[in-house]
Write a structure and sequence with these properties.
Radius of gyration: 29 Å
Distance between the termini: 81 Å
Oligomer: single chain
Number of helices: 12
Order of helices and strands: HHHHHHHHHHHH
């Protein structure tokens, strides 16, 4: 399986030959055909192996900053799965690699994080997921740009810690900004109804106080509360 991941991540699905995978793994091409049926089957097995590996570290209950840090760590430790994803994106639409995953991403956990205030609620959850994926993938896809920006390569000691720290700070700023923005937002219909009702009660209270004064009675604080 590791040999298949090595070949697919280096050459993409179209450029990979089963005999090259077999040679790297030190087995016969027929043995691969026996276990996986075809190059499609081998590719799907590599994809499934990544999904199973992802399940070992990507707990949706983790804070989003910790989750992003874990994805970054695994991407830098072994960039091949992300390179495989890049090759998928480069494939012509009329000849996509085989895929066993759902046609659309489940965004429910992202929406939950937005409701809990962990991510900004006024941004499309699809956009948030794409930006977070891009942030993790950037050092793998643009290693030379990362080196120019940070003064060190993504493979250098210290890069992961520096980049992870600032990604987590960025996410914390987003959550803080959203909390401040919520305070400035227009009230909901229910909130506005309560505000209007309170204003009407205050006007009625002022009217009753005026009636008391017209009869020579100056309402004190206790009278005002009773009224």
């Amino acid at each position: 399986m590791d040999a298949a991941l090595e070949e697919f991540s280096a050459k993409g699905f179209a450029g990979t030959r089963v005999r090259d995978v077999a040679a790297q793994a030190g087995v016969s091409k027929d043995l691969i055909a026996y276990h996986f049926g075809s190059k499609d089957g081998l590719y799907l097995a590599v994809q499934q192996a990544w999904l199973e590996r992802e399940d070992t570290f990507a707990d949706p209950r983790q804070p989003v900053g910790d989750l992003v840090a874990r994805y970054l760590h695994h991407a830098l430790a072994d960039p091949r799965p992300l390179r495989l994803l890049v090759w998928r994106g480069l494939a012509p639409p009329e000849h996509p690699p085989p895929d066993s995953t759902a046609a659309t991403e489940d965004l429910s956990t992202t929406r939950d994080r937005q409701r809990q205030g962990e991510l900004p609620a006024d941004i499309d959850p699809a956009a948030l997921r794409l930006v977070l994926l891009a942030a993790v993938a950037a050092p793998i896809v643009f290693p030379d740009t990362a080196r120019r920006l940070f003064g060190m390569a993504p493979t250098d000691p210290g890069f992961e810690e520096r980049y992870r720290r600032d990604l987590q700070r960025l996410l914390a700023h987003l959550a803080t900004h959203d909390a401040v923005s919520n305070a400035d937002r227009e009230p909901s219909d229910a909130q506005q109804a309560l505000i209007t009702e309170n204003q009407e009660l205050r006007r009625e209270l002022d009217r009753l106080r005026g009636v008391l004064r017209d009869h020579g009675i100056e309402p004190d604080a206790d009278t005002a509360r009773t009224v």
